[in-house]
Amino acid sequence: MIAIGCDFVAFELKMQFIEYFKERNLEYKDFGCYDTSFSQYPHTGYPLALAVAAQECECGLLLCGTGLGMSMVANKVKGIRAACVSDCYSAKMAKEHNNANVLTMGARVVGFEYARMIFEQWYDTDYDPEHDIRVNMITEIEQTGALVIEVEKKAPERKPH
């Protein structure tokens, strides 16, 4: 199930995504906001991030004016790797390399058709476990507030991109 939420600036974009989810038969849970009345983005972003972190929802889509505020709020929740994205390549890499479980976008930055393309690129991309070492480092920082830095004697084998 996809968690979706927005602030008042991105309400129309959220509603377009909900219609798109219905057309694509994707299950979703709407975390608000529910109209264009003024709202504070943390009131939506935080509960959505908690639901994704608790695995009540498989992933999240947060929308605000720029995507930045929602990203900052979501990333305060342990277990969340939110990526603020405004292009398809970054969306793909956010999932494939960083295992982003929340995507944030700005309604003042991208229109619906491009936002849909960005979402599809992210949602339809699988995480590549080759990047586990770095994602695990992020988790280590999150859990301990520290990171043990070890000097690698030899660079790991890399496959071409």
Question: Could you characterize the architecture of this molecule?
Answer:
With 161 residues, the protein is of the alpha/beta class. It has a single domain (2-128), classed as Ribose 5-phosphate Isomerase B, Chain: A. It is 42% helix and 14% strand. The chain is built from 6 helices and 5 strands; from the N terminus they run E-H-E-H-E-H-E-H-E-H-H. The chain has a 5-stranded parallel β-sheet, with helices on both faces. Strand 1, helix 1 and strand 2 (28-30) form a beta-alpha-beta unit. The radius of gyration is 16 Å and the shape is globular.
Superfamily (CATH H level) name:
Sugar-phosphate isomerase, RpiB/LacA/LacB
Total strands: the figure is: 5
Radius of gyration, whole Å: 16 Å
Based on the structure given, which CATH architecture is correct? 3-Layer(aba) Sandwich
Helical content, roughly? 40-55%
Give the structure's gist in a few sentences.
With 161 residues, this protein is α/β, with parallel strands linked by helices.
